[in-house]
Every structure is written in structure tokens, then in C-alpha cells.
Amino acid sequence: MNYDPLFYPYASRRTTVYARYGMVATSQPLAAQAGLDVLRRGGNAIDAAIATATALTVVEPTSNGIGGDAFALIWAHGKLHGLNASGPAPQNLSPQTLTAKGWREIPKHGWIPVTVPGAPAAWAALSQRFGRLPLPDVMQSAVAYAQEGYPISPTLGYNWNLAFSSYRRELSGNEFKPWFETFAPRGRAPRIGEIWRSPAHAQTLRQIAETGAESFYRGTLAEQIDHFSRQTDGYLRLEDLAAFRPEWVEPIQVDYRGFQVWEIPPNGHGLVALMALNILNGLDLPERDSAERYHLCIEAMKLAYADGRKFIAEPPSMRVRVEDLLSPAYAEDRRKLISREASEPQPGRLPQGGTVYLATADKEGNMVSYIQSNYMGFGSGLVVPGTGISLHNRGCNFTLEPDHANILAPGKRPYHTIIPGFLTRGGSAVGPFGVMGGFMQPQGHLQVMANTLDFHLNPQAALDAPRWQWLEGTRVELEHSVPEHIAESLARRGHRIDRPVGSGSFGRGQIIWRDEDGVLAGATEPRTDGQVAAW
Questions:
Q1: Does residue 355 carry a catalytic annotation?
Q2: Which of 191, 270, 379, 501 is the S-S candidate for 392 at Cβ 3.0 to 4.6 Å?
């Protein structure tokens, strides 16, 4: 891949990291080091991904936890494999149950949005199919961080304090007390540089490692989750946990500028990124720092999201086919709707039919694109007493609207925002990439791919480049690093421009590319505490 040698990162002192034998890129240095340690002890990229992911549940609990979901794209044995480890709604939870209690939409906190957590099953499944080292060895660093503690990093401390302030205002029931006991044991969020530890978290990770996650779904931990749910009027039951298995899936892709961009199929919304790239495929993007380029990318994303929000659900509930949404003919129809003015996006007509990200690579050619999340920071606000298991709130992406593809149903998986990405060319792996951050994620994928494949930026520059985020209608957020003349030009086209404070809403990503000689090139965001660990 040829990079633009004249581009210098706009606001980052980081540079692309190069190495030969192994690499881990993620949002927390301690987690990256956990993955690198496994590589140096003879593990492969899959082992490193598990080590990093499990460590992240400890060293970045503001974005993920043991009680969250996960997705992965794995390049192994010369092929790309997909894993969907997102869990379904409890069997005793239905729209009728909620509407009878006066609910008109799914809340963000408490038991209602809690679906079966899939992350522990993902670790076990990845280890069993592709791993080399025993799972207890792979998870050793995660257990140690939880047992012995670690100092709070800057971005982590900032987000932790935000979550604590919000939860103190909003969460008052007895079911939320274990969260405060676990994550605010001194009556406040831990401060930057302060040591935080969670021995209960360590013990839970040990049980998961020693039993291959069986304890979490069909053993002691499952019983503790069930007991807490029953005790606090929750809906999740032992039977829901016992029935869960992660699903191996076939990744989906589009060709873009001579490369293949891959995503996990629905119920995740990686499809949105692919639809947007497909629309851009028929356009020649002008120079990178031009209002016209921003406008075209924003409009393509709006059209793709309009379709995604209407059609994406668990596959049996989708009323259109993925191949129809990704067809060149449909992309051409959508492309024709782009004009010089900002549009109010509407879905097309078709034939009926807070998250952590990490990337790893090893010297043998294995590569992993992995993402897991509790959603909206810490998730539901529920922590299973004595376990450190912070339960996610993925079910809040369900709707109670009748006849909607994504309506809540017992045993159904919700629309999911976390998406790992992967790039190949001519049947060979280029590498994993991802941009965490809720509904920003497909938008981040689009921008990173355009920076890489249209403008030939190196990995660090592709992540550093100023970002935009479409919100709704004609509302668009621009980072402050986007030049003012571009913002003014977009406003003249009818875009309603916001300039938010900080960079938290624009995603946080990582990249690892492998070149023809096997050299690895990795990068991580200036918008987080991340690190590329390599050897």
C-alpha cells in the first residue's frame, strides 16, 4: 500500500509503529501489554486478542465488562472467519410485558435492557477453535490486574467520573447498590493515578478461564446471576444463560478501490458502513480537505443509515436480503439521490424477503479484529454482587413499535452497534481495523477507509485525521480540527453544523496492516489512552 509521505498528523505526537513478529493495538496500554506478553510466550494472535480483551474488562470498565457482548473477525488458515457473540433477550420478556407496566420504550438502565452477555462465550470459543495456549494462561494478566490493582489512566478517569456523576443522579434503587460498591467504593470515582482493584472480578475471571466459560452460562456464576435477577425483579434466568451459544458467521464485504472491506453480518450494523462505501464507489472523491468531499461522504452515510435503521435486525426478522442492500444496482439508485444540498434521508425500497476495540497480529500471519462492549459506558448500572460482572444494556436498541423489524421478542438479538472491520486484497489479508463509539462506528469505518484507500494515508494519519459525525436529519458534528472554511461551506449547503467540546463522540480506533514482506504497521488513536505494543 502506498502512503502519502507529505501528510503529517494534525494533532498527534504518535507515529505509525512498525514490527515483524507481533503486534497488539488497543485503547489501554496495560491491556496491549497483556496481549504482547502472550505473543512473546508463544501464543498466537487469537490468544493475544483474548488476553487483551479480558484485561480490558478490568482496565477500561467504563466501556466494557464481563457482562457485555463481543464480535470478531479472525484471519486464520488463509481465510476470514466471523464470530457473533451477542446475546438474546430473556424468554420471559416481551413487548406485552412492558406495555402492561406502562413502558412506551426500552429504558437505558435496570433489568429491562439486559440481554444474555456473550463476551465470556466469545473468549472460550476463540480459544477452543484457534488458540494455542491454555485459557487460564492467556487470562493471567487480566486476573492479576483485577487482584492487585492498577493506576487509573487519564481518559479512563475522566469517563469514570462522568459515569459516576450520572449514576448518582439517576440510579437510586437497591439493585444499583452493587455498582457503587464495586466501582465507587470510596463514595466517588477513582481519581487519575489512583489504584483501583476488584478481587471479585479476579475470582470471576479465574472461574471463566478454568471452566472455559461454562461457569458463566451453566454453573456457579450463572446461578449467581439468576439469583440477583430474581431478587431484584429482573428478567434474566438460568435457562436463558444455559441456552446461549456464540455463532460462527460468514463475513460480508464490498469491493472498494481494489480492496475488499469486510464486516460482520446483521444483527450488527457493519452493513451500514458497506452500503455507504458502495455508494461512494461510483464517485470520484475530490481532494481530502474540501467541502465537496465532506458533503459526499456525509450524504452517502445518511442514506446508508436510513436503510440500516429501518431494515437491520436479527436475520430471521429482516424483511430484505443483505445481498440486495449491497447490490451495485441499489447503490446506484441511492447514489442518484445525492445533490449539492444537505438532504433529509429516507430509507429506500427493496424487494421484500462508550465499547473497546483491539487488533492483533502474529508472525505466522494470523490477525484478529475484535470488539466488545457494555454499551453506553458501564451499561445497565447493574453489577452481580460479589462477582464484578457489570451487565450490559444492549436491549435498549430494541423497539416496542409494532411491525418494526427490530421489535423486542423473547430470545431475539437486538440491533447491535459494535462492529469489527477487516481489509483484504486479492485473497490476502491486509489487516484489522475498527473505530469504537456507538452509532459513530460505521461513520468511523467509512472515514478510515477513505483516508486509507482514497487518500493513501498511513495508519496513524488515517486515525488522526479530523472527523465528522452525522446525527440526524441535516445535523452534523465536526471536530474542531476541521477547517472553518469547510464548516462554513457545508452550512451553506444546508448542513446544520455543531462543534462539540472534546473528542469523545468521534470514536476511538486502531489499525494493523501487513505489507507484502510481512512487516506490520500499527496505529492507535490520539483520542484515547491507547498503545501499539509490538516486537
A1: yes
A2: 379
